[in-house]
Amino acid sequence: MTVINHIREIRKKKGISQIKMAEDLQVTRQTMNAIENNKYNPSLELALKIITYFDMPIDEIFILEEDAK
Q1: Which end of the chain has less neighbouring CB within 10 Å, N or C?
Q2: Does domain 2-65 have CATH number 1.10.260.40?
Q3: Which of 37, 38, 11, 10 is nearest to 23 (CA)?
């Protein structure tokens, strides 16, 4: 199973730059870039910060996809 996210789409829709979001969440821009590109899954703590930051339900931001068999 793979975790995908809609962070980039939500962030852009809300007019927030990647640098601003990274600063607000106290992570690097590179970390946010890797998460947005699904190259890295955030820690549970960071995932909870992200859903609080956007004030959205977790299932609107993160999706668990089943791998094709």
Answers
A1: C
A2: yes
A3: 11
Number of helical H runs and strand E runs in the chain:
5, 2
Instruction: Count Cβ atoms below 10 Å from residue 53 Cβ, excluding itself.
Output: 18
Give the model's pLDDT for residue 1.
80
Kindly list the domain boundaries of the chain, sorted by start residue: 2-65
* Burial classification of residue 34, based on how many CB atoms lie within 10 Å of its CB (0-12 exposed, 13-18 middle, 19 or more buried): middle
Query: What is the pLDDT at residue 68?
Result: 57
pTM of the predicted model, to two decimals?
Answer: 0.89
Q: Report the percentage of the chain scoring pLDDT > 90.
A: 90
